[in-house]
Amino acid sequence: ALAQLDPALDLLAARAATLSAEDAALATLLGERRSALTETARALARSAVGALKTRVHGDFHLGQILVAQG
User: Fold this and answer.
1) Is the CB of residue 24 less than 8 Å from the CB of residue 17?
2) Dihedral sign, Cα of residue 36, residue 58, residue 65, residue 54
């Protein structure tokens, strides 16, 4: 998350002119809170030291979890 945060906020700032007024305002607000977002992400990362990591491929559907006849 930390590795993706700065590039995402940079991209939002670079493309703010192409966004609707409402979305541009939200992008600006996120940019203004960059340091708070970064510190929160760091705090969450510190609190997860030693936690179990699980990969999710994002294509999970009902057909993959049904058991038929044993």
Assistant:
1) yes
2) negative
What does the alpha-carbon distance between residue 21 and residue 31 come to, in Å, rounded to a whole number? 15
Q: What is the total residue count of the chain?
A: 70
Give, in order, the Cα–Cα distances in Å from 9 to each of 44, 45, 54, 57: 19, 19, 26, 25
Whole-angstrom Cα distance, residue 22 to residue 40? 25
pTM of the model: 0.64
Cα–Cα distance for residue pair 19/17, rounded to 1 Å: 6
Whether the pLDDT of residue 70 is over 70: the answer is: no
Tell me the C-alpha distance between 48 and 63, whole Å: 32
**Interacting residues of 12 by C-beta distance below 8 A, sequence separation 6+:** 27, 30, 31
